[in-house]
């Protein structure tokens, strides 16, 4: 059962643990790194079955994962030679600039001869300090649904989700993943029709990820930021930390996160092997 999260400091402690185990490091690694002023952590990637039970639940065959979080860079790789090369590239302050195209290209050029490819680069958001100052709900049922003129907001029941399984209009809000089930979904309705969905998937034992979709003709009505922020409150009330991921180039999506009271928290780069096929 998740431990209640009642403050911004509690959220950071949980996030430090999450990112530590995601990077195949002992759970307290990030806490210790910040205490000692470290700028770089490295680790050998473990087989999926040996990773900590609290890791984010992905089946991808990632060969290298690199994150930058609060000025601390962490890199985990399956192959020692790749890990050594990444460590040399990221020495000192370089990890803070690895997202620049010129620096990322250096890393990708090194990976290519090893039959590795870039899978994704993502920017992740979590609630900022001010968000926690206004968080008061003791349970998801206590979260007050805001009023938006012309729209009705309501929570969907689990049995209502199946109708959206193959609906591409709401593919960001609902994932239908076995390992990362959809656990909370907030809808906005206009004239009785659902026009926006914000969904939370249980991506780990500690965190739930938020996705949002708003039909084109209803964008600009403050729906996205309002739904994401309200869902984040409900996730916290359930004892999980909400997070929101997007592309570093997707300015509109980033604005949604900011309007919801979330702040940019970590940047992540993942590469996979060309010899492996992702099964998720």
From TrEMBL:
<protein>
    <recommendedName>
        <fullName>GNAT family N-acetyltransferase</fullName>
    </recommendedName>
</protein>
<dbReference type="InterPro" id="IPR016181">
    <property type="entry name" value="Acyl_CoA_acyltransferase"/>
</dbReference>
């Amino acid at each position: 059962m998740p431990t209640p999260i009642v403050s911004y400091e509690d959220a950071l402690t949980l996030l430090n643990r999450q990112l530590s185990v995601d990077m195949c490091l002992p759970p307290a690694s990030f806490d210790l790194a910040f205490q000692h002023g470290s700028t770089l952590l490295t680790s050998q990637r473990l087989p999926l079955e040996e990773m900590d039970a609290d890791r984010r639940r992905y089946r991808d065959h990632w060969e290298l994962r690199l994150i930058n979080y609060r000025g601390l860079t962490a890199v985990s790789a399956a192959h020692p030679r790749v890990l050594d090369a990444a460590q040399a590239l990221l020495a000192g302050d370089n990890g803070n600039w690895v997202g620049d195209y010129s620096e990322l290209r250096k890393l990708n050029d090194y990976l290519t001869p090893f039959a590795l490819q870039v899978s994704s680069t993502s920017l992740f958001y979590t609630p900022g300090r001010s968000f926690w100052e206004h968080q008061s709900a003791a349970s998801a049922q206590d979260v007050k649904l805001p009023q938006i003129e012309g729209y009705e907001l309501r929570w969907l029941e689990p049995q209502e989700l199946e109708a959206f399984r193959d609906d591409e209009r709401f593919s960001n809000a609902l994932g239908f993943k076995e390992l990362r089930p959809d656990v909370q979904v907030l809808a906005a309705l206009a004239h009785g029709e659902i026009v926006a969905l914000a969904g939370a998937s249980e991506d780990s034992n500690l965190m739930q990820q938020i996705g949002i979709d708003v039909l084109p003709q209803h964008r600009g009505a403050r729906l996205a930021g309002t739904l994401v922020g309200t869902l984040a409150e409900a996730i916290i009330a359930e004892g999980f930390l909400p997070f929101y991921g997007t592309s570093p180039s997707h300015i509109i999506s980033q604005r949604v996160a900011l309007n919801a009271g979330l702040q940019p928290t970590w940047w992540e780069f993942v590469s996979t092997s060309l010899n492996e096929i992702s099964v998720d």
